[in-house]
Amino acid sequence: MMRQVLILPMALLVLPALYAGDFGDVACEGTYPQHLQGLCVDESAIYWSFTTRLVKTDLGGKVLAQVVVADHHGDLCHRDGKLYVAVNLGKFNDPKGNADSWVYVYDARDLSLLARHEIQEVFHGAGGIEFRDGRFFVVGGLPDGVPENHVYEYDGDFKFIKKHDVKSGWTQLGIQTAAFAGGRWWFGCYGDPKILLVTDADFNLIGRYEFDASLGIVGLPDGRFLAASGRTDKATGCSGSARIAVADEKSGLRSEEK
Questions:
Q1: Domain presence at residue 190
Q2: What average pLDDT does the segment 184-210 reach?
Q3: Fewest CB atoms within 10 Å of the CB: 3, 79, 90, 178?
Q4: Does 65 fall in a domain?
């Protein structure tokens, strides 16, 4: 696949350091061939994974760079100037484990590909990733009827450490997105309604809530969250946006009151 890159002039890429208060509800500029899978942030940019497009915007949603990527790029996380994306090149959610799970690493400055790491332990297909305390944690698919989800732990060089079980009950296609914030894990899942799983740091279930974080969730430094959503239009393509959310003991998360 030919790699296509759109990069705006460097003067527009050199942005001042910003703070959590600068984040707000935002829509990603443009439309894309396939739907939003996840998002992450740094101090001055938001990174969006649209399955076959990786997009970098400023905090207002204006596109700074984008690249064509392999199908299927899932949820992603940011660490030390790099983006780590959960990628499945095989059959997602296949009960026999015919997935082909990887983590692709990109330079956050220009979205150039830096490395690829095999993570074939993710049996039903890698779908999301988060970093915590020097380790990477990968989530993914779950066949119909399986009563618990799984989180796969890797060291900083993607050497497999352990599989953690989450006694969540079945969720449609497993876990799509992951974030660690406020001492808790937040997992976005598909379904009707969409499900948010919240666990403690050791993956013990705290609650199962009806909140849509299935297309992306990330914790902000001030304790708030960005929760993504998206729309698919057969005529114009797929779009993505994110709204500010706050933790709520009754509902897991809720949209921030204006």
A1: yes
A2: 98
A3: 3
A4: yes
pLDDT tens digits along 208-219 = 999 999 999 999
Number of domains the chain is built from: 1
At 3-19, the pLDDT tens digits run 333 333 333 333 334 45
Q: What average pLDDT does the segment 70-94 reach?
A: 97
Task: Look at residues 169, 170, 175 and name the one whose alpha carbon lies nearest to residue 187.
Answer: 175
pLDDT number for residue 4: 37
**What percentage of the chain reaches a pLDDT higher than 70?**
91
Residue 119's CATH number? 2.120.10.30
Q: What is the mean pLDDT of residues 106-114?
A: 98
Written as six digits, the tokens of 172 are 């449609």
Task: Say what the pLDDT of residue 9 is.
Answer: 34
Q: What is the distance between the alpha carbons of residues 105 and 154, in angstroms, rounded to a whole number?
A: 15
